[in-house]
Amino acid sequence: MSDFQFQRRLMRAGCAMASMAALGIGLVHAPAFAQAASQASAPQNGEERASTSDIVVTGSRIKASGYTAPTPTTVIDETSIQANAQPNIFTTIAQLPSLQGSSGTTVNTFSTSSGQQGLSSFSLRGVGAIRTLTLIDGQRVVGANVTGVPDVSLFPQLLIQRVDVVNGGASASYGSDAVGGVVNFITDTRFKGLKGNIQGGISKYDDNEQVLVQLAAGTSFLDDRAHLVVSGEYANEDGVGGGDWGIGLAGGRDWFKQTSLIDRGVINDGSPRYVLRDYAQAYNYTKYGLITSGPLQGTAFDQNGNPFQFNYGSNGVPARDGTTNVRGCFPGFCLGGDLSGNVDAGRSLQSSIERINTYARLGFDFADNDELYFTFNFGQVKTQNQPVGGMNKPGLTIQCANPFVPASIKAACATAGITSFGYGTSNAALGNTQVNTDRRQYRAVIGAKGQFDFLGTEWSYDNYYERGTNYTDIDVSNILLTNRFNDAINATTLNGAVVCASAAARANGCQPLNIFGGNPSAAALAYIMPENGPRQRTRQTQDVISINISGSPVELWAGPLSIAFGGEYRHEFYRVKADPYGVGTNFQPSEPDYPFDPTLLPGGNNWYAGNYKSGGGAYGVKEAFFEADLPVLNSDALGRANINGAVRVTDYSTSGTIWAWKVGGTWNLPIEGFRLRGVTSKDVRAPNLSELFAAPVTTTLPNFFDPFRGVNVLAIQNSIGNPNLRPETARNTTAGIAFSGASWLPGLSVSFDYYKIKIKDVISSLGAGDIVNLCFQNVRPETCSAFNLNNQQGPNFINVQAFNLASIDTSGFDIEASYQWRQPLGLPGTLTLRGLATHVSKFVTDSGLIGTIPVDSAGVNTGNTPDWKFLAIQSYENEKFSFMIQERWFSDGVLGHQYVVCQPGTCPASTNNHPTIDQNFMPGAFYMDIGGTYNVTPQVTAYFKVDNLFDRDPAKSPFFVNPALYDVVGRMYRAGVRFRF
């Protein structure tokens, strides 16, 4: 035996022994993707098409092909990814009907403080991204947000061979978070050659310009035992920024109607309490200022500060009775009139995003079936969005003596005998807030995988260590400090100069602000909106040690018994630091960019929005699992049947030990091509770092009602994390029938699967009043330890935190079908038809709070779960060209099932749980996309894609728009070139 052969055997034995030894300390992991019928990738530049049997969908560590595992899985192969021609693979996957509530660049664009702007994360079954596990090659990925969810935009994308979407609970196989399911990205670890992609795009409205450049290369050396794969990509999407004031959207889009759900405030006059109306104008502010109460009510100001009579719409007449009421209008709103002060049109419709990704993998085959490998990838994503136009400030009080008040208004004040008036403004003169995020991810994996012989049978192992670090920087610009704004608008004259009335504010640099019109001084702007705005710096780390072993130790009456077992240790950490003006630590002189200012609130929350907090925490997880696949039938008369089961024990450093399990089976019927499958499981989601260790926020409650003594008390509210949270638990059941692979109907695959998920102990946040009342009424005794309203040792306090109170109950079914017809009608090439549909029968959320009832959001089109969601693709391809048509559709829905629809004169009394409304309808939408390719040479392919071909506008919504369902960008054109050598 040569030295080299001896070294290889030694390394091989060492890896196997390390795998076995680690089982004794409970380091176990079992990634498990259910097998699904998948179509082999389309020929690339004249290559042979791989057979279906060549593709193994990783449904568990017990490998097989076809629809042979209990949990249904949807497979998106490389050809489908390329045909969709998106600048981010996230968009392609998020179109699947079972993915409901995923984020992306059009969701969270209206937010300043969430920290999730531009975050691309998946949500299966509508249960949230925190309950969907996203993996690369079956391995975990460090979170890109304090909720723990990763950002798919940071993944290396050109080397992805396919994406497996497991539509069902998989905690017994994967561990925490796999409640709704799993999305697993499979990369090409043995790619050889050079390939690239160059793509550009633009919308019909001449915005959202896009550029994508991708390049990957792979080679082997050392007698084909070493394999090196590298890739890099750059992508930039300009996004769709905010529009003009009023109702003018970016790019001339004309679908926005300022639709509002108006509360009449009357519950028993025979008319609906809520009415849905277009062109609603709030009458407590305007673009450059409006007097909203008193004898001068209705006087507005133009950009130059000149007063004029405001056009309220609805023939509205200001009451001028000391209130803000306008006669002839709805409470708070008039219809039509001067809409120029509306701020919603200023929202970004799509965040801009710039992505840079690099990836490298080096593998070495130290034996014929054994490999050591190392991967490293760095990704950076920068996003920008504008949450809204201006910074609304209704309800202000302005003194008539203010030197910026126009002379004619001062004279009118004197005539009316008043010294002040109510005032509101959109603050258009201050410009628009911008939110910039910068996420950077470093991820390295070292591992070994292969096969070894044990007691005469062959076993497989897959072991790895992963270290991931994510940095997230959030910076908000052009946003005001509320106290400074209040001081700046309260101006007076001192020694002939206009100054801030507050001496303390003047001593700290206050500059007076002219709030009438649109011409503030540069000094005033610098004072109320300092250059250093809200900011947050987050560092998250993830360390994973995972060991997995699988094999078939014994041959039974119906086939081999297959088992898999293993373990995992995981450590999660985060630390976040925010600016002192938001946190409330501005008394510490360690922040030169945020100087001490006694006029600001010492408890923080000084910004108009974007009041981020500091904090940190960590937890560890130890897991062990065992999975078995037992064949019970194998005969021509009865068919083939298997029982599959798994169990996982998990020990969290914060909440202790919990078990997850699954039991399922498949039955290949004696009728060729038909299979029954089903699985039921207990799944878990552990509380994330933010829920456990949220940074404390303190506010004062001056008149809080103590129900125990029946008196109002002064109390301190501490908003904190809850380290005593328990994991959420879910019962997840799927059952269905699948057809594929029949010789009498080749090319056809069809499946139908019912699903039901019931999640208990859902973690939800409570307000101070809810916490106290739940204890007082003995409904939730666990809240009693969160407050003391008769504290003899210090101030009264209420710790506002999350508890395991709520529940989610959802059910429905999936339908998937595909048909592949080779040489249709005698034509060379292949016609492929594929359709996927999801029906949500119910999606009931129970908050667990007193006085509330469960809410069913299935079919609520202001949310994420329409009754029906459908995706269909028809494509034809031959050796020279291809053409694809894609349809995306979801069904009509409602604003909410709690509403009672009625017309004036017929309405019952409106209640909080069942309010009356005049209309309760939100239409669905149908979108068509087309695309095609042309093989310029066997190595070079040109392609095009048009999304939303008919430029379908989103439906009007009382919440501006719902980008989770509706296309808000409009028709998009893309074209590019792919090459492979």
UniProtKB/TrEMBL annotation:
Pfam families: Plug (PF07715), TonB_dep_Rec_b-barrel (PF00593). It is found in: Cell outer membrane. Residues 68-182 form the TonB-dependent receptor plug domain. Residues 431-949 form the TonB-dependent receptor-like beta-barrel domain. It is a multi-pass membrane protein. The lineage of its organism: Bacteria, Pseudomonadati, Pseudomonadota, Alphaproteobacteria, Sphingomonadales. PANTHER family: PTHR47234, SECRETIN_TONB SHORT N-TERMINAL DOMAIN-CONTAINING PROTEIN (PTHR47234:SF3). It comes from Sphingobium fuliginis (strain ATCC 27551). InterPro entries: Beta-barrel_TonB, Beta-barrel_TonB_sf, Plug_dom, Plug_dom_sf, TonB-dep_rcpt-like. Its main location: membrane. This is TonB-dependent receptor. Residues 1-36 form the signal peptide. PROSITE patterns: TONB_DEPENDENT_REC_3 (PS52016). Belongs to the TonB-dependent receptor family. SUPFAM superfamilies: Porins.
